[in-house]
Amino acid sequence: MNDGRSRRAESQRVYRKAALLTAAQEVFSERGYHATSITDIVTQASVARGTFYQYFDSKKEIFLELLASLISELQSSIVGVDQKEDAPPLEQQLIATVYRIFDVVSANRSITTIVFREAVGLDQDVDRLLQQFYGGLEHYIVTALAVGQGVGTVRPLHREVVANCIVGSMRQVAHRYLIDAQEEKFDAKHISEEIVQLTLHGVVTGQN
User: Fold this and answer.
1) How far apart are CA 150 and CA 162, in angstroms?
2) What is residue 14's predicted lDDT score, i.e. its pLDDT?
3) Which CATH number goes with the domain that contains 132?
4) How far apart are CA 8 and CA 3, in angstroms?
């Protein structure tokens, strides 16, 4: 009996926390971080204010959990460079990684909107999480370019600068098409190809 009650209590706890996180994400997206209050969140979640404090100490804490969850999902989309003989070409691996990141961002537009519009400079903990993700992405691209240089498929270049260009392009495209324009049909595959091909090959055809 006690085990059954414990399981039901834990299930209820998980459900309520998930409801609060969902409500917070919706309200943050609609109102923005600064304009959102704990009252707004509990009203959206249809729970008592005291219930909120059973799970979170503050508005900042619930926002950090939402952000950490998003960044964890983004980080899982970055896989190491496959250097096996039968591995896809480096360019295709880069395109696949950019595509996976866009796919995650597109599926999480509400929290991503807050990240782009308000999160930068909001708080040291927020900045740390964002820098951790961007730093990891840049490191992946630098490593991929180094591998390409090692096998002669990438010309001599400043790997850190190029990595920053790719990340910057991704951020701008995401902002333009997913945040500002709210494109319903965001062709993540095509845009990923364009970003990587532009960075690696430029815009000229190579003809004299």
Assistant:
1) 16
2) 87
3) 1.10.357.10
4) 9
